[in-house]
């Protein structure tokens, strides 16, 4: 009989502990869901920032190309200028 009472008390203690653990598990699951939501929001912000960075980088490359264009045109004009001078000298030589 006494053994039966001890077993019953153990069952009650174990049941009480299980209930505590179930409550803790519920709290932990809620915290996990909150953390996952926060992580998802942070990932979205990082993806947005990365996209904006790529766009800015592309705009910078385009701006650099536009800024480099006058230098390229000037180099071409110098080349043609020297060719024109050479042709003029050739024409004078032929006269």
Description:
By secondary structure, this protein is an all-alpha fold. The protein is 98% helix and 0% strand. It has 1 helix and no strands. The protein has one helix spanning 2-94. The radius of gyration is 40 Å and the shape is rod-shaped. Keywords: Coiled coil. Residues 4-63 form a coiled coil.
Topology diagram in text:
Layout: H1 2-94
Keywords: Coiled coil
Coiled coil: 4-63
Biggest beta sheet attributes:
none
Number of strands: 0
- Helix fraction? over 70%
| Helical run tally | 1
**Unreliable segments (pLDDT under 50, ≥5 consecutive)?**
none
Shape: rod-shaped
Spatial gap, N to C terminus: 137 Å
Class derived from helix and strand content: mainly alpha
- Helix/strand order, N-terminal first: H
- pLDDT averaged over residues: 86
Oligomer: single chain
Beta-strand percent range: under 5%
Radius of gyration over C-alpha positions, nearest whole angstrom: 40 Å
Coiled coil: 4-63
Keywords: Coiled coil
């Amino acid at each position: 009989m006494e053994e039966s009472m001890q077993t019953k008390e153990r069952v009650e203690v174990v049941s009480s502990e299980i209930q505590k653990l179930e409550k803790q598990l519920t709290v932990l699951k809620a915290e996990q869901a909150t953390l996952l939501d926060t992580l998802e929001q942070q990932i979205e912000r990082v993806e947005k920032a990365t996209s904006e960075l790529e766009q800015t980088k592309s705009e910078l490359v385009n701006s650099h190309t536009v800024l480099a264009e006058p230098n390229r045109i000037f180099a071409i004009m110098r080349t043609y200028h020297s060719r024109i001078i050479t042709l003029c000298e050739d024409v004078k030589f032929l006269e």
